[in-house]
Design goal:
51% of the residues lie in helices and 10% in strands. Strand 1 and strand 2 form a beta hairpin. It is globular. The structure holds 6-O-phosphono-beta-D-fructofuranose (F6P).
Length: 549
């Protein structure tokens, strides 16, 4: 039975109708304990749901949904390593990657820990050599620049974390990330690099992704051209690979010792905890990387053990379901008030939309409700001066996640308080708005003439009632960042369970890849465009006339 047919779902529909008129202003004024009831602290991380449009009854009913969807059972299957990625017949064990205790991964039926620990040891040895200047390039120079070539999960995870933790970055190593097949991305970077002191990481689970492989081949040619006769010796000194297709990396020219293994039970968007996190280990050291894993593991333990009514990923997921399926929100915004978290919105876009952006359930049946909303976002300070107008007065329901750190990682006198003031002001303004009476009183106090009052007043009113969650980390350090990212991962998992989705496949990305494969020969003039649709044929002709394919 699908979730929407359950009494729990129907009760939520009725509850929404009964509470449709409730405004956050009323919810707060009628409950002085609202903040303490709806905010939670875990190891110093604060998550405040009090500005969400929920009351105690909403939470109780949402918790009923978890029973209807058998969340407990699915959570147990996730951690047991059952093949819950049914369409690909794979287990989902990224949580084992951050298991830091000795022995087997608790309750899992397959013992992956020896392999996981072996790769961690390989990462430690390699990153210490590179960071210590002991890994030398073909001319004997130490490595100064590291270029991660990857895309999707093989780019966004490590890039988000490396940029987030830039305060802890090794001063002698510059980290770069190349994902785009547009040559502008790689060409500009190569122009600035010295091949003698550059290390490339080719990160691709499949080692077949077109963008990554093309960039990797171009980088290899660049290196080999610089190394000249030394090219065969240079290649393994300047390239390593992270992949589950070891043999393909060997065909690329790398010895097995240069290959960091990953496994089919790690999805791309869940892979930063694996050797895909090698740029993180290089940037902040393996100890820092393991602190990141430990933070994620703390969230895993919390997700595993905390009762659902106090379980952060569960509550976050359920409130998201409420916003999407009962309040009708079609998007959700991620707004970090922290410059180092600038890639977090992109990371979460892949995590959420590639996982749950689906209309078919794991049983192959159409879903009976809308699933994931459209996730978007931007650094909050910048967004305020760009699109926040729409959030305040655009008439759309846009639930927001406001994320900040209590301390700055690059402090300058006088900056943190205004940052925090804006961070708090925006969620309050969105929640409570400004009534017509308040706006009128303000205009009167400003002695606005009566004839202008009527025309100005409508522009000065803010409807409010825009829901948001506030997350405050003590500081952006590896441990708390690990907790934050794992919080979102488990939220996505819980929502997938509620909607009846397999969150770990991504068939929706295949059609475009297939078509690109068919169009490539036509664009290069090696095949005619017969059989293609009219628009695509005409566009190919246009590009051929004006372009340089
Ligand atoms: O096309 C989507 C996707 O498969 C993502 O799921 C994945 O993270 C990305 O491409 C990169 O894949 P790979 O690591 O195999 O190159």
């Amino acid at each position: 039975m699908l979730t929407t047919n359950t009494p729990a779902w129907r009760a939520l529909v009725e509850h929404q109708k009964a509470t449709a008129q409730a405004h956050l202003r009323d919810l707060f004024s009628s409950d002085p304990e609202r903040f303490s009831r709806l905010s939670f602290e875990l190891e110093g991380m604060l998550v405040d749901f009090s500005k969400q449009r929920v009351d105690q009854r909403t939470i109780e009913l949402l918790l009923e949904l978890t029973k209807a969807a058998d969340l407990e059972g699915w959570r147990a299957r996730l951690f047991a390593g059952d093949k819950i990625n049914v369409s690909e017949d794979r287990a989902v064990l990224h949580t084992a990657l951050r298991y830091m205790k000795p022995g087997v991964f608790p309750s899992s039926t397959c013992n992956v820990m020896p392999e996981v620990r072996a790769v961690r040891a390989q990462m430690r040895e390699f990153s210490e050599k590179v960071r210590g200047g002991l890994w030398r390039g073909f001319s004997g120079e130490a490595i100064r620049d590291v270029v991660n070539i990857g895309i999707g999960g093989s780019d966004l995870g490590p890039k988000t974390v490396v940029r987030a933790l830039s305060a802890y970055q090794h001063q002698g190593l510059k980290m770069h990330f190349v994902s785009n097949v547009d040559s502008a991305h790689l060409a500009k970077l190569l122009n600035s690099l010295n091949p003698r002191s550059t290390l490339f990481i080719v990160a691709s689970k499949t080692f077949t992704t077109q963008e990554t492989m093309l960039n990797a081949h171009t980088a290899r040619e660049w290196l080999c051209a610089a190394a000249g006769d030394d090219a065969p010796r240079a290649l393994p000194l300047h390239f390593v690979a992270v992949t589950s297709a070891t043999e393909k990396a060997q065909v690329f020219g790398l010895p097995a010792s240069n290959v960091f293994r990953m496994w089919d039970w790690v999805g791309g968007r869940y892979s930063l905890w694996s050797a895909v996190g090698l740029p993180i280990a290089l940037a902040i050291g393996m100890n820092g990387f393991e602190r990141l894993l430990a933070g994620a593991q703390a969230m895993d333990n919390h997700f595993r053990e905390a009762p659902f009514e106090r379980n952060l990923p569960v509550l976050m997921a359920l409130i998201g379901v409420w916003n999407t399926n009962f309040l009708g929100a079609s998007t959700s915004a991620v707004l970090p008030y922290h410059e180092s978290l600038r890639f977090l919105p992109s990371f979460l876009q892949q995590l959420e939309m590639e996982s749950n952006g689906k209309t078919v359930g794991r049983d192959g049946q159409p879903l009976s409700c809308q699933a994931n909303p459209i996730v978007w976002g931007e650094i909050g300070s910048n967004g305020q001066h760009a699109f926040f107008q729409l959030l305040h007065q655009g008439g759309w329901l846009v639930p927001c996640d406001f994320i900040a750190s209590a301390q700055s990682d690059f402090p300058l006198p006088g900056h943190q308080a205004p940052l925090m003031a804006n961070f708090l002001a925006q969620s309050a303004a969105l929640a409570f708005g400004k009534t017509e009476a308040e706006a009128r009183a303000e205009l009167e106090a400003a002695r606005v003439p009566a004839d202008q009052m009527a025309s100005l007043l409508p522009h000065k009113v803010f409807a409010g009632n825009q829901p948001s969650t506030t997350i405050i980390l003590p500081r952006i350090v590896p441990y708390y960042l690990g907790m934050l990212l794992a919080l979102y991962e488990h939220k996505v998992f819980v929502q997938g369970v509620i909607w009846g989705i397999n969150s770990f496949d991504q068939w929706g990305v295949e059609l475009g890849k297939q078509l690109a494969g068919r169009l490539l020969p036509a664009l290069k003039g090696e095949a005619d465009s017969e059989g293609l649709d009219q628009s695509t044929r005409a566009l190919i002709a246009w590009i051929q006339e004006y372009g340089d394919c």
